[in-house]
Protein: Osmotically inducible protein OsmC
Organism: Oceanisphaera avium
Amino acid sequence: MKATVTWLEGMRFEGLSESGHKITLDGTNPGQGASPMEAVLLGAGGCSAIDVVSILEKSRQAITGCVVELSATRAEQAPRVFTDINMHFVVTGTELSEKHVARAISLSMEKYCSVMKMLDKALSATSSYEIHPA
């Protein structure tokens, strides 16, 4: 996998993935794009959400929506790494099995989400969920 990050102006950069997708990164707060740490947090949430939806679909669960609400704490001093992340999944569907939802989240957090597997060596990761009818 390859990517490039190009300086645009100030503290604003454009990331370009090997597959041709762009993301604006901005080191000012607030800026015109996500900060690099926000991008890491979004990557973790996106990775896990993909897993959860995929696992539930393979389990023949009638999932119609999945939102991951992320919260993270950063160290007080530089480098201001994440010290913990919580992912709260709001899963919507018809007659979703709580057992299947809990299992999908657990599998993602502990086995399949490559972003979380990298991060869990450096921080405490927790998850929670709620199920809403479609």
